[in-house]
Structures are given as C-alpha cells and as structure tokens.
Inverse folding.
C-alpha cells in the first residue's frame, strides 16, 4: 500500500499491530480521525495512555482493578471458599455476566504454552499456591474454567498436580453441547464428552 | 457490560467510538495493550497524536500530504490537463493502485449530504472553481470519480452545473458489471447502466 504521508503510514502501521486489525481497517480508522476534530484523537490517546500507565491488578486475585484489592475480593457477599481459576480478565467478565457464580477468582494471566514460550513461572500459579497456603484450608473448591484447548488442558493438568497437596476439591466447568446448539452440528469430541459427562435428569 | 476498572471502561468507550468497532472488539484491544509492554501503547498513542497534530493537506488538491504541495501535484510526469475529483484520500490511493491514471486529483473531503448537514460550502468545491479559474483553460477534462450513491450523484450534478461556465469536458468513471463478477448476481441498476453505457467491442 502506498501512503500519501509518512504520518499516515506510521499511524496505520501502529494500529495494524493490534490483533484482528489489518492495514485497510487501520487506514479507515486513521482517515476517520483526520476528519474528526483534533480533540477526539486527544481523548482517545489520553484514555489509552492513562489506562496503560495507571492500570493495577488486584493483590489477591490478579484481576484488573482500580483499587489495591478488587471489588469481588473485597465483597462480603462472595463465597471465599470457592475459587474459580481463569486465564484472563475477560473470562471473569463473561462468568460474572452469567450471574451463576458467587465465589471468587484467580486470574492466571494466560495458559501454559511451550509453543509461545509461556511456562508455569510466567503465570500466577505460584501466587495461587501461596494463596492456598495462606487460606489454611478455608478454600474448599477450586473450579478450573480454562479454554478447552490443548494449552488449557495442559494448564489444568499441571494445576491439578500442584494442588494435590491441599485438601481441596478440584472441579472443571462442564464440557458439553451448548444450550441452543443442535446435536447433529456439534463436533464429535464435544458430543463424546457430553456423553461421558452425562448427569442425572432431574 | 460491567467493567472491572474505570480506566478500562474509559479506554473501551473511546475506542468503540471509532467506526466499525464495537464494545467487545474494543475490550479485546484494550486487554491486548494491557498484556503488552507499556512502550507499545506509547508507540501507538504517539503515532496517532503526531499524525493528528502534524497532518497537512496539499495546497493544490487538498489530498493529505507531508509537504505543502503533494507528490502528485509536484510531479512533472503527471498530466495536469486532466483532473480527477474524488471524495477522500483513500479514493486517491485506490485509483493510484490501479496504475491506470496519470492526471492529477482534487479531493472534495466528502459529498453533499443534507441528511448529515454537509452542504457545498463544507466541501472543497469553491477551491475547485478557483483552481479552474487559475488554470486559465489548461484543464481540459474533469473526471468525476464519486461513489455511486444518492449523495455522490447529487454532488456530481452540482459540480456539473458549477463547471458549465468553463470550456472543460466533464466525464464520469464507468458504471457497469465488475470484472470477474457474474451477470446473474449483478443488481438490476448496475446491469441496466452497463447496457445503457455499452461500448464498442474492440
């Protein structure tokens, strides 16, 4: 792509480094900013700069938080004996949206992925073990809510092994046919797991 | 959507003001920036700020340019007697990519759109007329390359009327069946125009 201006080219290059945004989309966004008044661009860059510089993580669960400890960890209404292990902040948001979970969280910051050079020490796994030690047996259940991928499964197995020394029940969110999904269009592995994991009809 | 942090919420709100980016995509981008090092966000915001503050427009054709007059207007290889009128910079880029045009451009900055409150005075139409006067008859052809929409057609009619006082040939880019397109899937209006605008088979 030939750009009419180095400034445009630099901006397009930076924007297209973001995931899922190609050069054409980036150019469309840049030309939109050019048409809008200068303070709109300033508002965008200010929000991004402030966010990146001031962002903090909860000292307990490592979720993104504006305070030292996040609202969920601080809440007296949440059941501190159940701890849900997730990869990222957006997983916490997704589970919170269901309104079906009343425990607390632990955000790993990713999954074990040798291909991408991510090992256990790059994740908040030691912090989870510390948290278990500090809890002195008050955490009764760990719910693993990791992606149903090779990396997610590897991470789940690793966590299961590390958690064996504690008197805690380790569970995993159910894998099965999605609600509203049609049986014939469900892939074999999911359908197979849904049969193995069948539950009592009640 | 419930956000774990006001900083994240502000950043998501600003990003989702960009065209074609919803809250979910914006959140994904923000969380990506959180995972990456701080200087990546700084590189992005710097490029956007510099672009918006320093961007200039060619004094002759109003295309985006790093110099007072853009490379196309300055070039001695371009045919200054043919002038292509387009809406935006990306139209110039698209036409340049075809390598089929050797004239110069005039960027209007949009099209007449009463619905969006854009009148002739909001566009570089008076500047085009001035340019015609200054050219003293050396511009022999004006090629209208506007979008085939109601607004584009309105703008084309308006320009045609304003240009009547000059001894200049006003043409429009061809409307017809796209190359590689199938006849049966072409909409009626396009197919109709392609019949009315049929050319000698050579």
């Amino acid at each position: 792509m030939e750009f009419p201006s180095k400034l445009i080219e630099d901006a397009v290059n930076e924007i297209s480094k973001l995931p899922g945004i190609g050069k054409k989309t980036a150019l469309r966004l840049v030309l939109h900013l050019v048409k809008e008044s200068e303070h709109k661009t300033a508002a965008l860059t200010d929000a991004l700069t402030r966010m990146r510089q001031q962002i903090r993580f909860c000292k307990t669960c490592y979720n993104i938080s504006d305070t030292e400890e996040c609202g969920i960890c601080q809440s007296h209404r949440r059941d501190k004996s159940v701890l849900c292990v997730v990869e990222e902040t957006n997983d916490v948001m997704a589970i919170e949206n269901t309104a079906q979970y009343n425990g607390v969280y632990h955000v790993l910051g990713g999954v074990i992925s040798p291909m991408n050079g991510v090992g256990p020490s790059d994740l908040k796994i030691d912090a989870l073990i510390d948290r278990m030690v500090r809890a002195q047996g008050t955490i009764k259940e760990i719910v693993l809510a990791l992606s149903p991928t090779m990396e997610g499964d590897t991470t789940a197995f690793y966590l299961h092994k590390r958690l064996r020394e504690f008197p805690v029940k380790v569970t995993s969110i159910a894998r099965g046919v999605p609600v509203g999904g049609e049986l014939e269009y469900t892939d074999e592995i999911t359908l197979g797991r849904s049969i193995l994991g069948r539950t009592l009809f009640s």
Observations:
- Chain A touches chain B through 59 residues (CB under 8 Å).
